[in-house]
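User: My collaborator sent over this chain with a note saying "see what the structure looks like." That's all I know about it. Can you take a look?
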Amino acid sequence: MGAAARLDILARLHVHIERRTSTYLLAGTALLAVLHTWITSDVPGPTIFDETGYLGNARWLSGDPRIWHMGYAPYYGFGWSLVVAPLFWFIDQPDRLFRAVQLVNAVLAASLLPLLFLLCRRVLSARPAVALAAAAVGASVPAVTFNAGHALTENLVLPLVVATALASWLLCTPRPWWQRIWLAPGAVLLYASHARFVVLLPLVVLLLLTGAWVRLVPVRLAAANATLGLVGTAAVLLLRRALIADRWSGIERPEGDWSDLANLLGAPADLRQLGMAAAGQLWYLTAGSLGLAVVGLLFVARRTGRPRLRQGRPGPALRQWLADPRTLPLLFLLVAGAGVFAVSSVFFYRNLYRPDQLVYGRHNESFFPLWTAAGAVFLLVERRRAHLAAAVLVAALLGLTVTALLTGESRELLSGGYHVFSIPAIGGLGTDDAATLVPRASAVALVGLALTVGVGVTTRRPALVLPVCAVLFLAAGAWTLRDNSDVGRLGYSHVRMPEELAERNIDAVAMDLDVNRDTLFRATQFFRPDLRVEPYRSFLGERPGEPFVLSTVSSQPMREAGARMLYIDAGGFAVLANPDRDIALWVLPGEDHDRLAAEGQLLPRSFPGPLDASSRESELRLAKPPPDGILRASPGGTIFLGVRGRHTGEGSPWPAADMYNRGERVQVGVRLQPLGRRAPTGTNVFGRELPRTLYPGERFASTLIFRAAGADATPLREGRYEVAVFLRQADRPFSPRGEEPIRFVLDVTGG
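Assistant: Without extra context I'll predict from the sequence alone. Here is the result:
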């Protein structure tokens, strides 16, 4: 066979492999999009404050005149918001809109697979099969799955970091000019997405200058990129200023001013705290990826430092090294990752007030897919001796960072629980106790690393373990998302304020932006997009400009103004927190106040507290009284008792659990009390919920279900007991006009 024939066969084989790889790539991308769509379907809506920032930015960017006000709060970027803003043109129904946002996130998450494949193939010089396997592992990291369920900027940042890295490679390789101008726009869009990427802007300038110096990038092309970057940055700053002017009353900077960082040079205590923040984030980078991210980072560094000098090319070795088309992109990756890590460490050194902020992952997870994919390439192309060396190095790094976290000042910070949004890679291991999560996650990472390297070394086929890693990563992200969705469903299970406003035809409210930062307080503007909101800040002495005001139950300015509450939403995430954070709809004195007060719609000014005597008037009877006044049951048996009632008072409603699920709500009370000396069990008093909040004149029917048991759930002994049925608020029975409760005898027999 001649040389030409052999070359023809090799060319055909290459085309066949490329086509087969492309088929796998397309199928894998579609599968990931479907998986993310399915996994995220349980998330009910925005569950953290950040989401209100990003969704509100998207509404503003869509041109919608209905402003979603943030008050005095941290600033949130608008890069991801630009992507989802067009959805607001076509969808106005909140639930459908949030689902559409999740679908966009699923597509962005799936796009990581082809992007990582191209990066591994072109920048890391991996073979097609190796690049595909590594990309599958990198695209499956837990942060991708977790973020896809939420309205967060990370959904754009994760694929955009990889795309920007690819843009740096395109810039440094000979090709049409229009393919080489995307580095600066990518960096600017990352900066628009989150301020931590500000380090990329000078880095892009440095890369352009270096590329022009080594004649890798034509001067005109470098100038075009720089111009795009300059214009884009100016546009981002102008748009940011307009956003803040319309949506924020002030920007909160928990990290302090940048000028404060000068104190680092002369404050050893601050340097120690900065070191703790860096150690914590390095620990998360290691533990959250089973060590693969660190292995990938070291692999990229090794590839960058390996000289590829061209024979016969004039000039110093440094210039020859930089002139290689892969050197500058790899350097860009390393320095960009290090820069974001440094910015994140400094931010949390200034902002350590929660345990999870010591090991905060969301900032550095921007590079997780990239480093993890590079780690997978390392396992597939390097020798077994290198695998063992990398495993030992990662284990040592994990041990050092764990020691730093569990000793000294760091140990004191690790008290309390973690916020799952900060650590999605390990959130499934439990977030209640920060101090035990660190060693637990470290142990899991060590076992995973040992299995990953061990299988590759013993079988000489490391590819066997990579699919397992991908599945584990996907499962970890889905598990953490499910746990958080359970909390979200609990939070949303009692939310009624948006519907209450709609049912009462209230189309405008004032909102006190200083008293409550619960997500659902702000999210009222998402679930009622037609609601006109007039913001004000009570801390600055500002007064509401509408008769209906959204504030908190404990709002002292509202009480001082003579306002009364029309409705309380004790659902949402306030149900897990302090009752003072419950959202209340207040009505200021005026025409609406007088009308609603006359109708008995307003709670008394003293609420939460006893209802006025005039509003406690009631009728209560049994639907079917027991024959001869005696009801029979077995010890511990279940009793069904139908009751009918009516609110015959005036002035205020009876708040039930649907409005106020705390101690001052109105219930139907039941008291079991032994008759005679034979019954040894003490009195058992308990309450059962009204079917809904009752307003003057309204009736209710309910079936009380309880057991013939004592207060400790022990079945009642045989004997007779008096049963009293009455209305009560907290532990105080209603006593309208001295009426006695309904009474009958419960005969407990052994049969």
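A starting point for your reply to your collaborator: The longest helix spans residues 3-39.
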